[in-house]
Amino acid sequence: MDGASTQVLPVAIIGGGLAGLQAARLLHEAGIGFRIFEARDRLGGRILSTDAAGRPAEDGFDLGPSWFWPGMHPAMAVALAPLGLTAIPQHDEGDVLVERLPNRPPQRFAGSRQEPRSMRLAGGTGALVRALAGGLPEGSIQLASWATRITLDGDHVRLTLGQTDGGSDSVLAAQVIAALPPRLLEASIAFEPAIDPAIRLRWRETPTWMAPHAKFVAVYDSPFWRTAGLSGMAQSGVGPMGEIHDATTASGAAALFGFLGIDADRRQAAGTALLTRACLDQLVRLFGDEARSPVATLLMDWTAEVFTATADDRRGGAHPVPQRGPWVSGLWRERLSLAGSETSATDPGYLAGAMDAASRAAAEVLQRIAVPGRAA
User: Fold this and answer.
1) Average confidence (pLDDT) over 66-85
2) Which residue from 38, 66, 184, 187 has the least number of CB within 10 angstroms?
3) Burial of 44 (C-beta count, 10 Å sphere; 0-12/13-18/19+)
4) Would you state the pLDDT for residue 20?
5) What pLDDT, on a 0 to 100 scale, did the predictor assign at position 375?
6) CA distance 314 to 221
7) DSSP assignment of 121-136, as one string?
8) C-alpha to C-alpha distance for 350 and 342, rounded to whole angstroms
9) What is the structure's pLDDT at 6?
10) Concatenated DSSP letters for 105-123?
């Protein structure tokens, strides 16, 4: 082991996505020290908003989650105002295209306002990540460090951390918040003592939202489909994209995006170049020749992200559903809390679920710390 820390962190947070950042914010507001350990060289996890070159940007195209629904997720809407963030409606004005069969032209239907209305964030969903991270203390985030083993060590928890240079480190913490999907937690981190088999099975059988999916974005000089009276929304039984939407940013950078409707193995076999060509061919079928020459294209396959997906995610899976019962049991119950969106009791898998699960995990930690002798 290359390094070891004797300092005991009050709380170690594994994962710097939305859930980890929100948990950190709540702990910071309560005056509790923490450090976030994020495996990637960026924050956000499954949230990634980039420019046309694929670089994280302040007004980016969302390659991960884009939407929330204020009527369904009121807590999410309330959280935006203190952070200075603005919600914008998903563009849905204009007609909708439906592609049912190969070698048949798409059908055009009059569009209608979607209810509940899908909302996006000005600046992309990454704006939420930046806002949360900006309010945290300097030095409280450690990138390119991922937990490989978590061990009960007397009154503390020892985390063994892998690093990009091939080395490792070790830190002690009084409490741990695992702010990553339960399935990824089960597959990537060893626990000593071992997690109860029933709990491990529950973690593994909980689908990770976005992990089986891939998104394609085509960036254009202008939103030409709007001029043609189209909303940019399309449904297809032909593919490769099954669902397409307008992805134009709040600043007016024009784009269309779609979810690929083919599985991970076929995506991997096809490769980026072939998939890109097939997606552009489909956009031409739907929206005409102007779709043939984008300014740039982006393809994000979340199944290929080792810090998001496991082998189980290659088989796809339904959206996670709220589950009853504890996520942690036995000796770990006083030291470990799960905060991944999939553990939310109300909105698992959604952005709102990450906020909810983080709030619950932070509350659990604060309660333990408040009891004398339990997390000293």
Assistant:
1) 89
2) 187
3) buried
4) 98
5) 46
6) 35
7) ETT-THHHHHHHHHTS
8) 8
9) 67
10) PPEEE-----SSPPEEETT
